[in-house]
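The instructor's notes for this session suggest beginning with a concrete chain rather than abstract definitions. Hand out the sequence below and ask the class to guess, before any prediction is shown, which regions might be ordered.
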Amino acid sequence: MKIFNIPNNKLQLVAVIGMALLSACSNNKKQDDTTTVDSAVVVTVGRPTSNLQQNVNLSGQVEAGESANISTRIMGYITKINVKLGDHVSTGQLLATISNDDILAKRAQADAMITEANLALKNAQKDFDRFTTLYQQQSASAKELENVTLAYNSAKARLEVAKQSRNELNATLNYTNLTAPFAGIITQKNADAGSMANPGMSLLTIEKSDSYQLSATAPENSISQIHTGASAVVTIASANKTFEGKVTQINQSSQFTGGQYLIKINIPERDKTGLYAGMYANVQVKVKQTINANVDNEQVMVPSSSIEYKNQLAGLYTIGNNNTALLRWVRLGKTIGSNVAVLSGLAANEQFILKADGKLYNGVQVKIK
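After discussion, reveal the predicted structure:
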C-alpha cells in the first residue's frame, strides 16, 4: 500500500477554498431570505362584523337656502329695472318700477273724495249739535233729531269709505315699486324695461346671501337608512372642496320627484366661500344599520370588495401559519349596502385580508400593515 505525502502548503490552499465556498453559500442563503422578506405583499386585515357601518352614495347640487321670485300684482309697462345678473342687493333696495300713472290719478280722485267727505261731515256735525240742543230745549221733535243723526252718521261713513279707497290705492301703488325682500344676489332677470308686466309674472329672482345648502335625492331602497342629523361627507370637485355636513331635512314623499326622495344637507359657514348655486356634488351619507331578522345572527358580514370571484366561485384571502396568503372558498348570502353575508367558509372571529398593495395568490408571502 502506497502512502502519498501532500505538502502542507497544498493542504492550506484546499482549506481556504473550502471556507470560501461555505461563505458564499451562507451569503446566498441570507440574500434569499432578505429577498423573500422584502418581496412580501403588504396587506390590510380585518374581522367580520354583524353591525354594518356603511355609506349611501348620492348626487346633489348646491342651492340657496332661501330664494324669491320678484313679481307684481298689476299689469303695466316696466319703466325701469335697476339691477342686472350677479348684482348684490340689500334689504329694501328698489329693483324695478312699473308704470303707475293710472293709479296716481285714481289716488288723486280718492284724495278729492276725502276732502268732500270731510266738508260734508263738518256740516252734518253742526246740524247734529244744533238739533241736539234744540231737542233738549224741547224745541225740536224726536223725528227731526233722528233724521239729523242719520245724516251725520252717513257723512262719517262716506269719509271712511273715501279713506279706505285711498289706502287700497296706496297698497296697489306699492306693487309698482319692486324692492328686495332680503339681502342677496340677483340670479335671474326675465324682463327688460319696456316689456309688459303681468300679474304673477316673475321679473327677477333673488337668492339670499350666504344661505347655501345642498340638495340631494335618495332612492327608495336607501331612504330608510337616512335620518335627520346623519353625517354626510360632501365633495365638490369644481370648487376643490370636501367637508362634512348634516342632514337637516328629509322629504317624506317622492310623488313629484320621480320616485326619488329629496334631502337637504347643511353647509358649514367656513365652507360656503367660493361656492355657487348649481355646483354638482358627490355625497356620502354615513348610516349605521344593524342586521335585521332577515339575516341570521350566526352570519358574518365582510366588505364586498374583499371577495374574489373565479369560475363562478367566491372566495377571500386569509393568512396562513407561515404568513402566506391562502384563498378560502366561501358561500355568500344577502348583500346589504357595501357588505355581503358569508354563510360558510369563514368563522365569525377569523381574520381575512381586506386589501393588498400588490397581487395576491396562494402561497405568496404577506406582511400585515
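Then share the key points. The chain has four domains: 41-54+293-368, 56-65+212-289, 67-99+176-207, 101-174. The helical segments are 8-38, 101-136, 142-174, 220-223.
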